Amino acid sequence: MSTDDIFVYRFEEGHARGDGSQKELLGGKGAGLAEMARLGMPVPPGMTLTTEACRSYLEHGFFPEGLEMQVRKGIAWLEKRTGRGFGDTDNPLLLSVRSGAARSMPGMMDTVLNLGLSEDSVEGLARQSGDRRFAYDCLRRFVQMYTSVVMGVDDALLEEVLVRHRRRAGVDDDHDLGWEELFAISEAMRQKAVEVTGRDVPRGPFGQLWGAVEAVFRSWEAPRARAYRKLHRMNGGGWGTAVNIMVMVFGNLGDESASGVAFSRNPATGEARPYGEYMIATQGEDVVGGRRSPGPLGMNEEQHGGMAAMERLMPEQYTELCGYMQELERNYHDMQDVEFCVERGKLWMLQTRAAKRTGQAAVRAALEMCEEGLIDEEEAILRVDPKLHLERALHRQIAGSPPEPIARGQAASPGAATGRIALSSERAVALAEDGEDAILVRPMTSADDVEGLHAAVGVLTAQGGLTSHAAVVARGIGTPCVCGVGALRIDEEEGGFYLGDDFFKEGDAITIDGGSGEVFAGALKLKDPTITGELKTFLTLADRYRRLEVRVNVDSAAEAELAREMGAEGVGLCRTEHMILESSEAVLAMRQVLLSTDWESREEGLEALVNFQRQEVAQILRHMDGLPVMVRLLDPPAHEFLPGTAAGRKRVAKALGISEEAVGWRVDALRESNPMLGFRGGRLAMVYPQIYEAQVQAIVEASRQVQDEGVRTRVEIAIPMVADPGEAGHLIAVINDAVARHLYGLSREADVAVGVMVEVPRAALLAGELALEADFFSFGTNDLTQLMWGMSRDDAARFMEAYRDQGVLTEDPFEILDRAGVGLLMRQALKQGRMVYPQLAAGVCGEHAGEPHSIRFFEALNLDYVSVSPYRVASARLAAAQAFIAEEQAARSGEAWRGGLAPMKRQSNGD
Question: Whole-model pTM?
Fold first, then answer.
């Protein structure tokens, strides 16, 4: 880098060098400040140090050449604009230094306020403001932030200093401390920093500034920031953060001043009405920190006994703020989250960004913005995230009438959750790792709780409001949250919390309702979500832009019924082995087939198996009434159906009337060293064709049975783990013969299609030959990925993290389809298959089928359907619509798709 590089971008009301489109360079906060300044909003003058400067610092360990000179010129400009001097003892210029990455990371990185203040200039600030307490409050805040953020002193040690002085003064709140106590606290914190670090807080303003800038740059690599990026899959650790240096405006300058956070729409519900919180005589960190409960913006949100609304106490500033939020929504075409400050009646805008919102709010806001003409239908569909918003919009609720709550707080993030009390993030993570649901219970959360917040199924805090750290993060990740339960008193020494006289210890079960703000003792029964109201309207809109069918993977009739409610367009995978394994009678029948030594006994087992599967398949066909139902024949290794213990073998021997020795001999004979690649799928049918014949009999008879009831059927049968065209041809013939034997009485519309699972790489490579016999392909991407990568999906977690941490892989191929490898094989298989049989239907039924990035690839590949678990049907419907829109937009712009492979040309549907 040279001295010609520009690292500093200035902004002030009415003018900015940058703009809102430059997030990668200026960070989200800097780009937002520049945009607000260009729009003529009241933004304090300041400058943004670019992410390029941060990356250079992190790479080399020192500031890039030219940065310090540009910053000094910027400071001189700020002095001229304000008439104050940086470090001047009589009229000091104070600054805020705040981080701002390209993508929002709430609370993850560092901020220093009131920078430039010292014991030498605090009296000058007191004279300038006419408020000595305010001046010493600013000094205390600066020393506390600087010693923590820049010098690394533990926050708990600094909090001890505060608590000690509050007790000595006989007050409960910092707001009640006089200037003498505030000065004493500042000095005690400085002394604590010297004890811990051996260094004092710099008195010179530029020494403070360079320390703060370095601290913000370093905060990009702080453990909590790295953990946040890891949890949110924010790959590519080289982005860095910008630094925003801005003239301080003071929300703590008396009762005519305030700080707050506001949303242009309600982030929990999406209601088109300004929403937020503020606090009189405070600085911004107080509002989001959760130490005190703030007041609402609008009078409609006022609560009995609570703080009066900003609309009531500061009506002019409230009206002005609402106007700016409306203008920002029109400018960005999106819901906004802003920070603001009122200094002695003057409103200042300090930040704007796209608001994090619940799934419910995302859906409602997208629909209403479309109705208002702010966005079109395509943008409304693209605005809602299938995983982040839609899957989490389907929250569970408390079933029936709940008992009387043990406490009430603020409804910060909707949905009900039941779990065990965890008083720390570490405990929440440990419970989650043990397969237990945890409710994280804290006085308030901080950035250090990020892993616990993600591990917990619910969050409960004693302090904080709807814009506190816990509320913002919980809404962003779709976790139910209740904040500000004033009656909640945590006693970590006793290992629990009190609500009045009642004590709840860590590990006890509680239930929270983030939609009502209520807390209940014990584990209440929860009910599954349904698609109604605005969500139904939104998905109906998305369906109009969707080409891919969305089917469902089911193991039971109950799942099929749920899937229809979610909008599934058929069954793309019915796993017959799961049906069997969930029924003790069916398992015994299967064991009789595998263990019997005479044909008569084996036939009895097959007959029982037919009767069981006929009933199960018939129920699924009834729920799907006319929609396709693809039934996969038995896939797992034979040994999975057999007893694994001596006691189990004894029980089976008794039930089947054969000797324990015979059972043991057969179990040993069927044991395999590598079951995944062993005696399973089509190979089982090559040795025991009677099993597949019996399953086909059950399927066809089920179809006949429900047809007699007036139910329409479209049956598809798939053969798993096929590797060779000859093998496929032989097994398809076996199945077709069995179908023909049992087909009498079926209507022509109910003809049974027979296809193959493409999950072995050899089958994909020979897909053209397979298509000579198969009616359809179903790509089983779970096994296809395992066999392509040569790794087990169940074991990959123990080493996949190392690949991602070291930058070898950016994505887990078992979560997001490996487009370059597995995707290439799928594309070649589909091309070969459709060259032989142009009408060849093809879909995907692995876990990738519900993953939005993978769905984009499947749309480009021109597959016919994806098949997902019941609770992912709704999000897959949206992801498929978004994929179609993205493909159409790319085609209109003439841009090649960047998904890893160029898409095939979409074929005509013939209509």
Answer: 0.85
